[in-house]
Design a protein that fits this description.
Helix 3 (about 90-100) runs parallel beside helix 8 and helix 5 runs parallel beside helix 6 (about 245-255). This protein folds into 2 domains: about 1-195, L-asparaginase, N-terminal domain (Rossmann fold, 3-Layer(aba) Sandwich), CATH 3.40.50.1170; about 205-320, Rossmann fold, CATH 3.40.50. The protein is an alpha/beta fold. The protein has helices spanning about 30, 60-70, 90-100, 120-135, 215-225, 245-255, 280-285, 295-310, 315-320, and strands at about 1-10, 15-20, 20-25, 40-50, 80, 100, 105-110, 140-145, 150, 155, 165, 175, 180-185, 195, 205-210, 230-235, 260-265, 290. The chain starts with a strand and ends in a 10-residue tail after the last helix. Bound molecules: aspartic acid. Aspartic acid (ASP) binds next to loops.
Length: about 325
């Protein structure tokens, strides 16, 4: 018997049409999920008090989800989180760090079309998510979507049009669901320490600064100089290259001097920051930006948020940023 907890947070999967557009409907997902009951599967379905379009998610919601998972952790064998697709990769990344020592599956899923739509992709996504949540050796946060199981802290939303909404461009899938399920266990992680949930400090000021040719570099520099950020992710070009713009570099150096980490990641979907591959990658590093290698923006922000929430002091925090904590980046 597998005991699975489904936690519904909102999103298209449980929405219906309103005059303003699709809105979440309380009670809908729990009632529709009745069809998944079968011998050997003990299913409990809970909903967050306030169901949201995931574009409205905040650290406060993440803390509610973390608290629910922590409260029920020892009573279930696996967890499915139904969630809007817009920020699913953010939530999956946050949970991958916040649920340290996870030794059970936590599988996020959702849909591009509501379950109430005759062509909804949600039914298959839910079936795959439940299947994954029953795997006792899947010790990580993942996303089940369009017949793929992806590492949560590597996944990105890539389409608002196709059923193939997600992929993990720098990490192979954890499973492919076909007539047979192809579990790629060689890529699965194993828990290294006891489970411990970390809630997030919801007052932190984190920014993701996307460089663009011309004024964009100055704008990023100004934000770092004036916004009292606790940490920043700079999305640079190619292998981590950026213009040696004085304001940009002053901003990075200012953050670095006051112990606020700046992580350099690439705007490009596939590949990694490689400091030194091009001379143009040296300026950001010289000013104090850390290489985020092949981190996604979602994972970079989540990792910073998690590490700053633990209250680690500067040196261990920088050391932790440089290590893969949840399979989020290549060595
Ligand atoms: N706006 C929706 C959400 O993220 C989109 C979806 O679920 O597909 O909640």
């Amino acid at each position: 018997m597998r005991r699975i907890l489904v936690l519904h947070t909102g999103g298209t999967i449980g929405m219906e049409a309103s005059p303003a557009g699709l809105v979440p409907v309380p009670g809908l997902v729990p009632s529709l999920l009745e069809r998944y009951r079968r011998p050997g599967l003990d299913l409990t379905v809970l909903e967050l008090a306030e169901l949201i379009d995931s574009s409205a998610i905040t650290p406060r919601h993440w803390n509610q989800i973390i608290a629910q998972l922590a409260e029920h952790y020892h009573h279930y064998d696996g967890f499915v989180l139904t969630h809007g697709t817009d920020t699913m990769a953010y939530t999956a990344s946050v949970l991958a760090f916040a649920l340290q020592g996870l030794a059970k599956p936590v599988v996020l899923t959702g849909a591009q079309l509501p379950l109430l739509h005759p062509r909804s992709d949600g039914w298959g996504n839910l079936a795959d998510a439940l299947e994954a949540a029953c795997q006792s050796d899947l010790h990580e946060v993942s996303i089940a979507f369009n017949r793929l199981l992806l590492r949560g802290c590597r996944a990105r939303k890539l389409s608002a049009e196709q059923f193939a909404g997600f992929d993990s461009p720098n990490c192979p899938p954890l499973a492919q669901f076909a007539i047979q399920t192809h579990w790629q266990r060689q890529h699965w992680r194993t828990a290294q320490r006891p489970f411990q949930a970390q809630s997030l400090n919801d007052t932190l000021k984190l920014a993701c600064l996307f460089l663009t040719p011309g004024y964009g570099a100055q704008l990023a520099g100004q934000a770092m100089l004036t916004q009292e950020l606790d940490a920043a992710v700079v999305m640079s070009f190619g292998n981590g290259n950026a213009p040696a713009d004085p304001l940009l570099l002053e901003g990075v150096a200012n953050m670095h001097q006051r112990g606020a980490p700046v992580v350099n990641i690439s705007q490009v979907l596939q590949g990694a920051v490689a400091v030194g591959a091009y001379a143009a990658s040296q300026a950001l590093a010289g000013a104090g930006a850390l290489s985020g290698r092949d981190l996604t923006p979602e994972a970079a922000l989540a990792k910073l948020h998690y590490l700053l929430s633990t209250g680690l002091s500067a040196q261990p925090l920088l050391a932790a940023l440089d290590c893969s904590l949840a399979g989020e980046m290549s060595d």
